[in-house]
Design a protein that fits this description.
There is one protein chain. The protein is of the alpha+beta class and about 140 residues long. It has one domain: Ribosomal protein L30/L7 (Ribosomal Protein L30, Chain: A), CATH 3.30.1390.20. The protein has six helices and five strands; from the N terminus they run E-H-E-H-E-H-H-H-E-E-H. The protein has a five-stranded mixed sheet, covered by helices on one side. Helix 3 runs parallel beside helix 6. The protein is globular, with a radius of gyration of 14 Å. The two termini are about 20 Å apart. The mean pLDDT is about 90.
Amino acid sequence: MYAIVRLRGSIKTAPKVRKTFEMLNLTRANHASVWKEEPSILNMLKKVEGYVTFGKISDDALAEMLEKRGRFEEGSDAKKALAALKEGKSAKEAGVKNCFRLSPPKKGYERGGIKKPYTLGGALGDRGEAINDLIRKML
């Protein structure tokens, strides 16, 4: 599963980028969402790569995020939602809203800020397994 965290706002963004944010349930900065690995999601990530950071989330980080910031539908809780997400169901089928409101990270982002890619010392783009550390800093 991919965890996607929006880092930048929507001022001076193209309409296609704003529409992609709506489809990914990322309406504001410091919001996160969790998606299955699909080609359509990867294409959306390419479109908004200059505004978000993403990576493969571990089961421990996902469980922690569900417990602390998850908003559930009637009759669902963190354990049921985690089990359903591990099976490959979407967040809606698992009974959890796919928008997690996070706080800015403790001790800040990387040294390069939120306008440079992760590979050059910034915070944007694909970070792989390092997304787990960022999510823990933001909880």
